[in-house]
Structures are given as structure tokens and as C-alpha cells.
Amino acid sequence: MKITLRNFKPDDFDTLYEIDQACYEPEVAYSQRELRAYLRFSGSDCLVAEAEADAEPAAAPAPEKQIAGFCISARRDESGYIVTIDVLPQFRRHHVGSKLLAEIERRLAANRVREVALETATDNDSAIAFWTKHGYRNRGIKKDYYPGGRDAFAMTKTLPL
Q1: What is the pTM of this model?
Q2: 118-138 pLDDT, tens digit each
Q3: How far apart are CA 81 and CA 38, in angstroms?
């Protein structure tokens, strides 16, 4: 499977909304209004990952691309924030999230961001492992951050100069 990254296009919105709904439980997933607001936020960036099946023999038609996931970040001055990183379940464990994160961090660093923050649920072991693997460290707990009284870890990473 070939993964390519590209900038968000307005025509992607409905697909990104569907992906967010598929990735998170209804009380955590963003509403269309919230998702639009994050995409329009000053300093926001949205990167889209497209998956393409490995090429077949030359006689076969070109493989179709599918949006596999996306990442939204925001920045102000030297501070960055990961709003969300969403990867459809069938594309997980194919490094889609890692590729999205690496490029978003590169873009943040290119804009002089030195520290990136995010929140992740304290009971989401796979997300905690993902963020930790990529150099994010727990800086504390935000009580009742998510609906239903779920707590979140506040995590940060210092980007290299």
C-alpha cells in the first residue's frame, strides 16, 4: 500500500467528517461545526493521507486512491497543538499516523514552533503508546476533559531546532 500526503482541500470536508465519526465515539467525535472551526482557525494546518493499493500489472487500470486519515494542527507563536489525528481502522498499523505526524511536526517546526501539545484519553492505551513512541511526554492529567467524566493526559513534545 502506497501512502501519499497532501494538503486539505474543501472538497475533502465530508470525508474527513465521516472519518472522524468512525474514529471516535459519538460523544467525543467533532460535530461538523467544530471540525469546520478547527480547519478555519488562524494558524491551522490540515494534512490528508491518501492510500493507494499497490500497482497491478501494466494492463490494469490505475489504482484508486482513498483518504485513509488526516491530521489537524494549530499554532501560535512558538506553541503548536495537535487538534486531532484520525486514521481509519483498516489503515492503522501501516504507518499512516506516523507519516501524518512527522510531516505536521516538520511544518510546525518550519514555522518556528518549539513545543507541541495535545490531549489523549487516559484509558486509550493504543493512543498513549503512539504518542509516547513519537516522543510526547505526559505533563499531567486534565480531569473530566472528555464527556462522561473521562480524564485526559496533557502531553507535550519539544521539537528540535
Answers
A1: 0.91
A2: 999 999 999 999 999 999 999
A3: 11
